[in-house]
Structure formats: C-alpha cells, structure tokens
Amino acid sequence: MIKQDEKITFTGQVKEALLSIKEKKCCKKARANAESFICDNALIERENFVCDECKNAFLRGVFLKCGSVNAPDKRGHLEMKVGSEMNADEMCIFLREMGLEAKVSKRREKYLVYFKDGDTIFALLSLMGAQKCAFDLVNTQIEKNIRNNVNRVNNCEMANMQKSANATVRQLEAIKELMKDERFENLPEKLLYTATLRRDNPDLSLTDLALIHEPPITKSCVNHRLEKLIKIAFGE
Ligand SMILES: [Zn+2]
C-alpha cells in the first residue's frame, strides 16, 4: 500500500485503484491474457471472455502492464505502450469493439496506442474500474475551464478599462490644451458645456458623464463631442 503523505502520480493512483478491484475467476484469466498479450505477443483470447466484465478486465490488464495517463491538470493523454505493430493493431481493434477510437504512433521501438480526447479517457478509466480517478479527471477539467473563462473575462474587462482610461487621458489633455488660450472660452456652447463637465469630472465613465448633462444626452453624443474637442485641440 502507498503511504498517505507520499506523492503518487495520477497513473499510480489509477493503477492502485485497478489493483484493488475484486475479480471473478474468468476476469482474472482475461487479465492474465492481457499480460501475455503484451509480454509475449499472445493473441487476445476472446473465447475466454465469458462474463460482462471480462473485456474490462483485459483492458485493465493491459493498462496495468503498459499504460499511463496524464495528471488531471495536464493536457488529456492516455497511452498504452506496446511492443509490436501487431499488438498495436490488435489493441485498436479490441478498443474499437468497445466503442473506443485510439490512435497509434511509433516511438523508438515501441508503439503507442493513445487517446487525447477527454470523454474517451473518462470512458476508458470508467470501463477499467477506476471511476473515482475518472471523476477526478473530469472535475479538474471543468474547474480548469471555469478558471480559464474567468481569466478571459477579466482580461477583457481590464483591456476595456485600460482603453477608456486612455481615452479619458486624451480628452483631458485636449481640454488642457484648449485652456492654454481663448479657444476654450470660444468653443460652441454645447462643446464648452461638455468640456467643462469632463474637466470637472475626470473619473466618470462616458455613460455617467452623459447623465449629468442637463438635460441628459446619449453616450454617443458625449463621445462625439469629446472627439470633436480633441480634433479642435490637436487638429487631428
Ligand atoms: Zn469475467
């Protein structure tokens, strides 16, 4: 058994869960078949799969022998490293029979039968009997997605705030520029009114600035007037 305080990889957790499963005699045989399938290129003895659980036990045996899975906070990846192309092909056929589509790639002398899709990895872990690990994986993925979304929204809000802060700075600079000479006093009445309100309320958003006009005007009207001020001040 693994000690409580000892760090154990996610693969280790899965394998520990798989090893703790009580198996019927037929399932034990199926798992032994998996071992000789991986180690000695033996055939998959489907005729010996008698109960509903035998296929899962075979899968469990393969994973225990040569499987690994990424930790829940990492990119989705579950692989079984087999020794021959034939093994890899056989494994893919077997997995397809169980409704699982695997991919294969060659790495050095080994063949990797692997999955990237989160739903499939969840299904595989569940079928093998590592339900708790499967749920840990899904929960972590959901939390990660929520966190990413929150960050994205925050970044977007920050960008917007920065943008309007920059715009306000520009407006105040324009007003300051106009106030250097008589151009400010000589502004058309409405522009002068808006310019004065902006000067005296530098912290207000455009929406709020629009509302303190008497009578209130629209946000786009305020925006239009402020842009006009910038144009007059800097000739842009
Ligand atoms: Zn069985």
Task: Offer a quick outline of the entry.
By secondary structure, the chain is an alpha+beta fold. It folds into two domains: 10-145, Roll (Endonuclease I-creI); 158-234, no CATH class. The chain has helices at 10-19, 25-40, 54-66, 85-97, 118-128, 131-179, 189-200, 206-211, 219-234; strands at residues 67-69, 78-82, 103-107, 110-115.
Tag the structure with descriptive keywords.
236 residues; alpha+beta; Endonuclease I-creI; 2 domains; four-stranded antiparallel sheet; 4 strands; 8% strand; rod-shaped; binds zinc ion
User: What is the fourth-level CATH superfamily of the largest domain?
Assistant: Homing endonucleases
Distance between the termini: 75 Å
Mean pLDDT: 92
The major sheet is characterized as: 4 strands, antiparallel
- The unreliable regions are none
Walk me through the structure.
The chain is α+β, with helices and mostly antiparallel strands. It has two domains: 10-145, Endonuclease I-creI, CATH 3.10.28.10; 158-234, no CATH class. Helices cover 62% and strands 8% of the residues. It contains nine helices and four strands, in the order H-H-H-E-E-H-E-E-H-H-H-H-H. It has helices at residues 10-19, 25-40, 54-66, 85-97, 118-128, 131-179, 189-200, 206-211, 219-234; strands at 67-69, 78-82, 103-107, 110-115. It has a four-stranded antiparallel beta sheet. Helix 5 runs antiparallel to helix 6. The longest helix has 49 residues, at 131-179. The radius of gyration is 33 Å and the shape is rod-shaped. The termini are far apart. The mean pLDDT is 92. Bound molecules: zinc ion. Residues 24, 26-27, 50-51, 53-54, 57 line the site of zinc ion.
